[in-house]
Structures are given as C-alpha cells and as structure tokens.
Amino acid sequence: MSRNSTGRWRLGQTVALALALAAPGSASAQQLGLPRHEVLTISGEILFAKSAYGRRVIDEIEAEGALLAAENERIIAELSREELDLTERRAKMEPDAFRVLAEAFDRKVQSHRENQEAKRETLARRGDAARTAFVELTRPILGALMRDTGASVILDRSTVFFSLDSTDVTALAISRIDEAIGDGSALRKNGNN
Questions:
Q1: pLDDT given at position 21
Q2: Which residues of 68-80 are buried (b: 16+ CB within 10 A; e: fewer)?
Q3: Residues of the chain where predicted confidence (pLDDT) is lower than 50
Q4: How far apart, in whole angstroms, are the C-alpha atoms of residue 28 and residue 40?
Q5: How far apart are CA 32 and CA 29, in angstroms?
Q6: Which helix (H) or strand (E) is 40 found in, with range?
Q7: What range does the record give for the signal peptide (predicted)?
Q8: Alpha-carbon distance 50 to 60, whole Å?
Q9: Is 61 helix (H, G, I), strand (E, B) or coil?
C-alpha cells in the first residue's frame, strides 16, 4: 500500500468511526441494553396510569370524586326530606300557597343539580389538564429515550395494527419519567399539575 493510499484508508476509517459515533443513539442504545428500533410503541394510558405522577393525579381525582358523591347523597337526602314535608303539608294548604312553595322547591332542586354538575365538570377538566401537563412534562424525557434508542417516532400502541413486543418501551418510559418528575408534587408548587 502506498503512503497516499494508507492515508486515505485511515481517513476513511476516521470518517466511518465519526459517522458511527454521530449516529443518534447508536452507541448508547447498545451499551445501555435498550431496544434499537426506528419505530417505538408506547401505551399512553398505561404510561399515565402507572407513572407516579398519574397515580397521584388519579388518586386525588378519585378522592375528590368520592367527596363529591358523598355531598351529592347528603343533598339528595335533604331534598327528599324537604319534598316529603312539602307533600305532607299540601293537604293543609291553599293551592296557590302550595304552588309557590313547590316552585321554590323545584328551583332549589334545579340549582343543586346545576351546582353538582358544575363541580363534576370542574373535576373532569382538572383531570384533563393534568393529563395535558403530563404530556408536556414527559415530551423531553420521551425525546431523550428516542435519541438513546435511535428511534425517529413513538406511536401509541392503540393505533398500531401489529408490532413486536420489543418495540414497546412503556415500562422503560415510566421508569425514566418517575426518575425525572416523580409524582409531580414538587412541580405543583411551580404551578403545574
């Protein structure tokens, strides 16, 4: 081999090595024992529900939902007693006087119904907002996972017709999310859910 061809051979090796090291995730995916796929899959529902953040949010929403249900039962019991009292008083009242009380009672029932529905909707919106915040918080974590595995896309398993189990990185993503943001309690002080 001539000196010139040896130099080109070394340059070729150097370029090949540089390209291999520059390839996204090529060394780290293999070194870290991560799957190496262009396309990864993840279960969005499981990701949220089994992460520490998601479990905290779900537990809080369920606890508030239970309080709301108990409050609703208490209100229904009060309204039932009031309705029974009104029914018993009806026989002793003038029809016009009863009509005024019955209409007032109907407005009260409607008001309680609207208030409880508004509280349920607020609770549902809080849950939706927490899920949206979760997606935003996990975006950089999932981006790093893509780089580490050499993936160019992550698809939700629910939209995939068929895939190998080795493309599913849900458990790995959960462990990284839990490590990075925990249950999100510290983030709540900064205005996130």
A1: 36
A2: eeeebeebeeeee
A3: 1-28, 30-31
A4: 16
A5: 5
A6: strand 39-42
A7: 1-29
A8: 14
A9: helix
